[in-house]
Amino acid sequence: MNLRDLKYLVALADHKHFGRAAEASFASQPTLSTQIKKLEDELDVQIFERQPRAVLLTTAGEAIIARARTVLREVDAIRDIARSARDPEAGSIRLGMFPTLGPYLLPHVIPALHRRFPRLELLLIEEKSEELLSKLERGELDAALLALPAGDESLTTAVLFEEPFLLALPRERAADFPRARVKLSELREQQVLLLEEGHCMRTQALSLCELGGASERGGFRATSLETLRQMVAANVGMTLLPQLSVMPPVAANDNLLLRHFVEPQPKRQIGLLWRKSDAREPLMQALAEVLADGAHRVLGDPAAANGKSRQSP
Predict the structure, then answer these.
(1) Interacting residues of 228 by C-beta distance below 8 A, sequence separation 6+
(2) DSSP, res 243
(3) pLDDT (tens digit, 9 = 90+) per residue, 135-175?
(4) Strand, helix or coil at 251?
(5) By C-alpha distance, which of 229, 261, 242 is closest to 299?
(6) 90: which of 4, 52, 60, 119 fits an S-S bond (Cβ 3.0–4.6 Å)?
(7) How far is 94 from 272, CA to CA, in rounded Å?
């Protein structure tokens, strides 16, 4: 048994398909299949149940794969320790973020990140929140930007900033909301356009709609914020948008009106999460501070006065 074989096991468990697992492992399918069969023979246990159209884990296989993931994470941690000893701010960081945040935050923080970490390679991965958490726990990501609360006791959380939600409505409905700031209760009996299942912002928006007495407009669910924006501009309905998604460099739309909410404004809290076992704790904290400072500057957050993120206990 060696690390390569453990990686083959995990790849097949993740992809449930020999061809895709081999491609992800940069190996030929016969090589991966042969090595896994040799390992099963060595352990004298069946790890995978091979069916014509599927590859399933046996009960013993589930336990073995869980241990294999732990071993591979520990090996990565050893490499992290060695890399940090050589140069704490060099190498690469696999940073995950969800679709309703990444495209709108990155333009405001990437230049500062390059200045602060000139030797650090940032590998950016965009996925929905649930998948980001899974990748982080499996060691496929080093850190992830997520809406809080998220994660468990195995992860460290640095609270970065709070982002207000705005009401977006068609210009044709300006008379219904004439004031620059609206109360959440003014949404009572309104129907709101929302994102499809799987987006964390859908859950947040639904909670706000319930508080304000609004409901979801049936028959339509958007795949992205851009779709929501275009549907509102086309006078299909109204929606809630996070503030960063309507700020430059995002282009304004003359057919779309924005209304802030009165205090206390509905907001989402954004944090940076990483594994407690990661040896690069100082680097992660420094990364969190740069991200927090960039967001605070564009959002005008009063917390920018100290420029520090807050770490959860």
Answers:
(1) 168, 193, 194, 195, 222, 239, 241
(2) G
(3) 998 888 999 999 999 988 899 999 999 999 999 999 988 88
(4) coil
(5) 242
(6) 119
(7) 12
203 and 129 Cβ atoms separated by less than 8 Å? no
Contact 147, 269 (CB under 8 A): yes
> CA–CA separation, 204 vs 226, rounded Å?
18
What is the rounded distance in angstroms from the CA atom of residue 26 to the CA atom of residue 14?
Answer: 15
Provide DSSP, 163-187: EEEEEEEEGGGGGGS-SSEE-GGGG
CA 66, CA 60: separation in Å to the nearest integer?
Answer: 10
Token pair listed for 92: 């690469």
Burial of 85 per CB tally in 10 Å (0-12, 13-18, 19+): exposed
d(CA 272, CA 287): 9
C-alpha torsion sign, points 78, 81, 86, 92 = positive
Rounded to an integer, the average pLDDT of 107-114 is 95
In 130-142, which positions are buried (b, 16+ CB within 10 angstroms) versus exposed (e)? ebbbebbbebebb
Using CA atoms, how far apart are residues 309 and 272, in angstroms rounded to an integer? 9
Q: Which residue has the tokens 């040799």?
A: 38
If phi > 0 it is left, if psi is from -120 to 50 it is alpha, else beta; for residue 139 that is left
Residues 181-227 have pLDDT tens digits of 988 888 888 888 888 877 777 888 878 877 788 877 777 778 888 98
What angle do helix axes 102-116 and 281-299 make, rounded to 10 degrees? 120
| Per-position DSSP letters for 10-27, written without gaps between them | HHHHHHSSHHHHHHHTTS
DSSP states of 192-203 as a string?
E--BPTT-HHHH
In terms of Cβ atoms closer than 10 Å to its own Cβ (0-12, 13-18, 19+), residue 90 is middle
